[in-house]
Write a structure and sequence with these properties.
The protein has 362 residues and is an alpha/beta fold. It is built from 13 helices and 14 strands.
Length: 362
């Protein structure tokens, strides 16, 4: 049986970690209960917090994560015949960031695809890679999630008095980080590998939970240039608290059902923000602590506290950390779920894990 197996992962976050004390100096404090609920103690930015100068790029971070994943998988870039990159913050509108990474890796020819579905993007990309490999269209896929959010939020604090920054504008600075993660998927003659995944956008009639306004074609460019900020990142904190838990609960139930896996049989479940204080509190209040969620108690993980919320990069970054630290082992069933609050999207996929931990890779 032809299956698609994950054979390696890689992660990259730029510079030195930026702790909450540093953010407080830039934009002022958050209430203690809000800070505790976020469950984030540090994040990484590709900009210099003091000047806003770019020290890296989205495609640059994606390239570094991709190279790390290929190295641990024991592959050369030219062996990749499919590359899918998920991002909401590309270097340019065109060319696609995936092709900039292709160039940096020195790959003359391969199939490429770029996905713009936020935090759900990498899980979505894995399912596409799975299908194309199972169909025999490709042999080796490189799936990347990369995000450069700090350039969009830097104007909030650069040349500003922290005491004059509004609370709703402070929150994104405490939340978001930059980085990239990559996953190598390869064809194998086996009955173990990636199982069929799912993706849904369930907020078609809801207003965005996160809205990045500016830099697109929604308004004349001259009009945008006259705005206070070229890009304004708006976060609907109330909306997120009310609907993200509903989306996460549905994503878990649907992913397990499509994969044909009982929650009791899953060894690990990766859900960004799945263990954040605000998420758990909201799920209890809304009554969406489903039987599947309860059955997975103690096996839901992320690395949000140490990375910040990093959009498309979250799933592969957290997966890379779990694999390299030995938490995930061959023979285990791992559920990967990505969620996105802009228009309330989710994607999920289950992997029968086969890759030995890096220390054991020959």
């Amino acid at each position: 049986m032809r299956k698609a197996q994950i054979i390696g992962t890689g992660g990259y976050q730029p510079g030195e970690p930026i702790d909450n004390a540093t953010i407080e100096k830039l934009v002022g404090p958050l209430p203690d209960d809000v800070l505790t609920g976020l469950s984030i103690v540090q994040r990484y930015w590709m900009i210099d917090p003091a000047t806003g100068e770019h020290l890296d790029s989205n495609s640059g971070m994606a390239f570094k994560a991709a190279q790390a994943a290929l190295d641990v998988a024991g592959l050369k870039p030219e062996q990749v015949d499919l590359m899918i990159l998920a991002t909401g913050t590309p270097d340019f509108t065109l060319p696609p960031a995936v092709n900039l990474v292709q160039e940096k890796l020195g790959i003359e020819r391969c199939a490429t695809l770029e996905i713009r579905s936020g935090g759900s993007g990498t899980a979505h990309a894995l399912d596409i890679a799975r299908m194309w490999i199972e169909q025999g269209r490709n042999e080796t896929a490189l799936v990347i999630g990369s995000e450069a959010i700090s350039p969009a939020i830097a104007p909030v604090f650069l040349e500003s008095d922290p005491e004059k920054i509004r609370m709703r504008e402070r929150l994104p600075l405490y939340m978001f980080g930059d980085g990239a993660g990559a996953i190598v998927v390869q064809a194998a003659d086996s009955d173990q590998g990636l199982r069929p995944g799912t993706n849904q956008a369930i907020g078609g009639l809801r207003k965005p939970g996160i809205h990045a306004i500016g830099g697109g074609t929604h308004a004349p460019l001259l009009t945008q240039q006259r705005s206070k900020r070229l890009v304004d990142l708006r976060v609907d904190v109330v909306g997120a608290g009310q609907f993200t838990p509903v989306m996460v609960a549905e994503a878990l139930t649907e992913t397990l059902a499509v994969a044909g896996l009982a929650a009791e049989d899953a060894d690990w479940c990766l859900i960004p923000e799945g263990n954040a204080g605000w998420m758990l509190d909201s799920m209890r209040e809304l009554g969406v602590l489903t039987p599947q969620w309860l059955a997975l108690e103690g096996r839901i993980f992320d690395n949000l506290a140490m990375t910040g919320a990093c959009g498309c990069a979250a799933v592969p970054l957290f997966l890379d950390n779990a694999w390299r630290t030995g938490m995930i082992q061959p023979g285990q069933q791992v559920v990967l779920i990505g969620v996105e609050a802009t228009k309330w999207m989710y994607a999920g996929i289950v992997c029968d894990w086969t890759a030995p931990t890096p220390a054991l890779v020959s």
